[in-house]
Write a structure and sequence with these properties.
The protein is mostly helical. It has a domain at 88-158. 47% of the residues lie in helices and 0% in strands. The two termini are 75 Å apart. This is Molecular chaperone DnaJ. It comes from Agrobacterium cavarae.
């Protein structure tokens, strides 16, 4: 508050003093009285191209008549490509096949088992293979995780960590 007035009141008073000092021609029209958009003849009802005030529509129709028509013949649909054959390693989904690939032995440590899991997942994770092979990849990853988790649980019994 400045001298018994709020900041807002002091700003309004200053603007009023400035408006009194300016000549009438300089004072802008208030926003509510301004015309922002004049829709013109296009937005009026009863449009016809013969009206003289409808020059934009007439120009548009003239250009439209001059445009060439495109005769596009439908293309023959291309045949879908032959499905990609499933890789050999993704066909081996048995527990024995996955165990042979992982080659888990009694010298493996937690670090080596973790590395085997990551390496196996890089090739076999369902998100890393085409959609047609995801079921086999899921089976292989399930088997690998089962075997690696079992080997990790046996590490303390074998005296290794």
């Amino acid at each position: 508050m400045l001298f018994g007035q709020s900041v807002f009141q002091s700003v309004v008073a200053r603007l009023e003093r400035e408006a009194e000092d300016r000549p009438e021609e300089e004072i802008a029209t208030p926003f509510s009285a301004r015309v922002i958009f004049d829709p013109g003849p296009i937005a009026t009802s009863g449009i016809s191209e013969t009206e003289p005030d409808n020059r934009p529509l007439s120009a548009y129709l003239d250009v439209l008549e001059e445009m060439p028509t495109l005769d596009i013949e439908p293309r023959d649909e291309e045949p879908e490509p032959a499905p990609m054959p499933i890789p050999d390693y993704l066909q081996k989904t048995s527990l024995a096949d996955v165990s042979h690939e992982l080659a888990i032995n009694d010298r493996d440590t937690l670090e080596s088992l973790s590395e085997k899991r990551r390496a196996f997942a890089r090739l076999n994770h369902p998100d890393a293979v085409p959609a047609a092979f995801r079921e086999n990849a899921h089976l292989r990853m399930t088997a690998a995780n089962l075997l690696i988790d079992q080997a990790i649980r046996l590490l303390p019994l074998m005296g290794r960590t």
